[in-house]
Each structure stands twice: as structure tokens, then as C-alpha cells.
Amino acid sequence: MLEIRLAQQGETALQKELWKRCFGDSDRYIDFYYANRYKEDETVVLLHDGEISAMLTMLPVRTVLPDNRSFKTAMLYAIATNPDYQNLGFATKLMDFSNQYLRIQKTELSVLTPANGHLFDYYRKLGYQDGFDIREAQLLRASIESLAGDQACQCTVSAITPHEYNRRRNKQLDGRLCIAYSDEDIAYQKKLSQLSGVDIYAVDIDEIQGCFVVERITSDKVLIKEILLPEELMNVALKQISQQLSAQEYVLRTPYYLGKHLGGRLRPFGMIRVDRKIDWVITSEELGYLGLAFD
Q1: Exposure string (b/e) for 65-89, b if CB count within 10 Å is 16 or more?
Q2: How many angstroms separate the CA atoms of 138 and 140, rounded?
Q3: pLDDT at 64
Q4: Ranges under pLDDT 50 in the chain
Q5: Measured between alpha carbons, how far is 108 from 294 in angstroms, rounded to an integer?
Q6: Between helices 27-36 and 183-195, what is the axis angle to 10°?
Q7: CATH architecture of 2-112
Q8: Is the CB of residue 177 less than 8 Å from the CB of residue 288?
Q9: What is the pLDDT at residue 284?
Q10: Given this model, what pLDDT does residue 85 score?
Q11: Under a CB-based contact definition with an 8 Å cutoff, are residues 216 and 241 in contact?
Q12: Distance CA 125, CA 146 (A)
């Protein structure tokens, strides 16, 4: 017997067990998520014979168009099915329920970031289309230090509040198709970054106000999950970042339209589904930027 519904009180221990089995995250990280981001009314569970066997989270965000119109959007996150019950259609049933629920809530769009490349075809069958690419490069410290840059530029890097980060982020993405987050979402990302020993940051280069998010993977490796500032100032910013956040390797994610000169690869990152009739269609010539997927 299957039952699909919103999560209820007293179920977090069972959800944590499923999360760990599906994603392999540490207890420390799982406990952190449930202490800082979990909400029952944003979590959908599927029960098989009374046992939580699949679940997903619906994070409220907004899709902003180049003309600055915005639409109520849900980011489907942490889609998990007990390995013992995979290939039985549980995830599809869970997502169908979630999409019906979101329509009732007058949510116009939903987005998600597939955990691996093989899942893109699966989500396409459920009505999703490619919508958000990123550029990803792996840079050694020595290669960053050798980048050409304007030595006359005054560049400073400092930790920043979620509200100020969001203000800078929205300004840098103005006029582009993108996913916009609440200050609460950015506050959660700040805690995630701090959990790994770093933070979210402002980068100021003369009069230009940019921002970036970092998570430390190991003592010698950091992930710059998002960096937003004009292309011509990227080298200057990276050189300053490498001086203040020491590592041997930097994994850099940028919007698809930034950082081409740094090498790396352009890859699909997020997908989008239109759940209500709106007068806008995403095209391959007008891909958007999602950025923070809390992955």
C-alpha cells in the first residue's frame, strides 16, 4: 500500500536514515540540514506499507526573467528513494503528487538539479527541459597567481551578511534569466559555508560590488560555488581570493557566460518545468543561471 503526503512531526529520524542511505552524507551534515533548513510543510514523503521509502523537498524560490518579471517557483531538492524500492516508479509518483500540490499553491514553475548526467533523460520524460548551464573549471593555485590582471585595481574580499549578498547578487544578475533566492536561503548557504570553515563574501574592485560563495572541501581544495562580477575583473578577484583563502586547488563554478578564458567545461546544471500557463518560453538561446543548488 502506498501513501503520499506532507511530512509530519516525529518522522525526522526515519527521514535521516533514508537520506544517509541514498546520499551517503555524514551524520554531521544531515543533522545540520534538519536543524537549519528542514520544514515539514516543504517535505513530501512516500510511504510503502507504512515505511518512508521516498521523499523530496520543495524549496520556494523565484524565477526572474530578463524583463524583471518573476514567477513563483519550487526547487525540488533531495529527491530520494530507498535503494530497495528503486525502479518501481516511486520517484515518479512522488513528483506527480508534488506537482499537483504545487499547482494548488499557484506555483508557476519548478526547477531541479539532477544528481548526475544520467538523470537528465528521466526528468525530461516528466516534462522538464534543460534551462540552466554552468561553466566549471579546476584551477591550481600557481595558475591563478599567473593570471593577467590590472595591478592598479584595488580589490578587497570580506565576509558579508545574507541580505547584502542577495542585494549584490540580484544587481549582478539584473537583466538575465535567473533563479532568485530569499535572504533565508542565503543565510542557510552562509551556515553551510561556515560549517566547512569559510563563508560567503563580498568582493569589491574599485567601484564594482561583486560576491561569491565558498565551501572548503579539504585543507588543500576549495569549491567556489558561485562568483558574480564583470568578466574583465574575474582574474583580479581570483588572485585576491587565492591569497586570502589558501588552497592548492580551486574548483570554480561560474554562470555559463563568464570565465571562458579560464578553461574548464560548460555543462548542463539545472532543469525547469512550466506548471502553469505563462507567456514565456525558455529557448536554447536564452538559458538561465541557477547558481546555488545546496548540493
Answers
A1: beeeeebbbbbbbbbbbbeeeeeee
A2: 7
A3: 96
A4: none
A5: 22
A6: 150
A7: 3-Layer(aba) Sandwich (3.40)
A8: yes
A9: 65
A10: 93
A11: no
A12: 46
